[in-house]
Design goal:
The chain is α+β, with helices and mostly antiparallel strands. The strands form 3 sheets. Strands 8, 9, 10, 11, 12 and 13 form a 6-stranded antiparallel sheet that branches. The two termini are 27 Å apart.
């Protein structure tokens, strides 16, 4: 058995979700017989101080249960690497690439994986505009509705779907509250599907069906607000194609451990949306659901993640 530090909480807008994920992970790891301690980055001055503290505790492994922000964008991964602490999930470079939705769209396009049309804003270009005619070009390129989202956040934080240009400015203002880059994206109608890759193998596809509106923060974390189907009701050929897409992106970005790849199906084809290198581990989370559909219990899932991290040398390479 190992001495494992579960890193949870943090300072991102997804703190509350991370606390739930981390608590679930800690509870299960203890049941598996591991010696578990918890560490919240909010209690330290920075990641390096926390990593040095964990090093002094002589832990065998850090289980990263943070979501979003600097816990998922490579900063924590860099601190753990510099301190020589093995950790779960992807390394610094893969985490940084995956967190940037616009960059992963470019990588997906290069890999032959279809993506929605998109426009990246590095600053709020609309703050001085008063007339929707001045930015009608967004509609020309993306059509309507338009999805407006922070370029490097998760859990649907700061995302809006607007049906006319009158709502574009306020939606962009909202997204800029959570990121210094905002992605405008073509809305793909249809079904939402996700593929988890675990230790280089694709798990069964999960379908997500919100009962009201779209798959926003409330739909994700309110019991009964969304219906999940695992395996998804799609053809074997469609499931195979989705898994191929997910594995292609997994390799292109150099993910490790586990990651989740989100897609839309509009009736004609699949469109890649984003990569989540630290999927949730709450009772309503998709990766444990996919694992269960593959006959893998939550405890077995965590043990696979731990074993993979222990045998991986990504943490040696800051």
């Amino acid at each position: 058995m190992k001495k494992i530090a579960v890193i949870l909480g943090g300072l991102s807008p997804e703190r509350e979700v991370s606390l739930v994920s981390g608590s679930e992970v800690s509870k299960c790891l203890k049941e598996l017989g591991h010696n578990v301690l918890e560490a919240d980055p909010a209690s330290f001055s920075d990641f390096l101080q926390m990593a040095q503290n964990l090093k002094s505790e002589e832990i065998d492994l850090a289980f990263n249960a943070l979501h979003g922000g600097s816990g998922e964008n490579g900063e924590l991964q860099a601190a753990l690497s510099l301190t020589g602490i093995p950790f779960t999930g992807s390394g610094m470079a893969a985490s940084a690439l995956s967190m940037n939705k616009y960059v992963t769209k470019l990588i997906a396009t290069a890999e032959g994986v279809p993506v929605p049309e998109g426009i990246i804003l590095y600053e709020n270009l609309l703050e001085d505009y008063q007339d929707t005619v001045d930015y009608s070009g967004f509609q020309t390129k993306l059509g309507l509705p338009i999805v407006v989202k922070p370029n490097d956040a998760g859990s649907s934080v700061g995302i809006s779907i607007i049906n006319n240009l009158d709502g574009l400015k306020s939606a962009i203002d909202l997204s800029f509250q959570f990121s210094n880059q905002v992605l405008l994206e073509q809305y793909i109608p249809g079904r939402e599907l996700t593929v988890t890759v675990l230790d280089g193998k694709a798990l069964p596809v999960v379908e997500i069906e919100p009962q009201n509106g779209w798959y926003d923060y409330t739909s994700k974390y309110t019991k009964g607000a969304t219906v999940y189907t695992a395996p998804a009701r799609i053809t074997e050929a469609e499931a195979m194609l989705l898994k191929v897409y997910a594995l292609r992106l997994w390799k292109a970005v150099s993910c490790s451990g586990y990651a989740r790849f989100d897609f839309r199906l509009d009736g004609n084809g699949f469109y890649f949306l984003e990569i989540n290198t630290l999927p949730g581990m709450t009772p309503l989370s998709l990766t444990p659901m996919a694992a269960k559909a593959a006959g893998i219990s939550f405890g077995e899932l965590l043990q696979i993640i731990i074993n993979t991290a222990s045998n991986d040398n990504k943490w040696r390479k800051p």
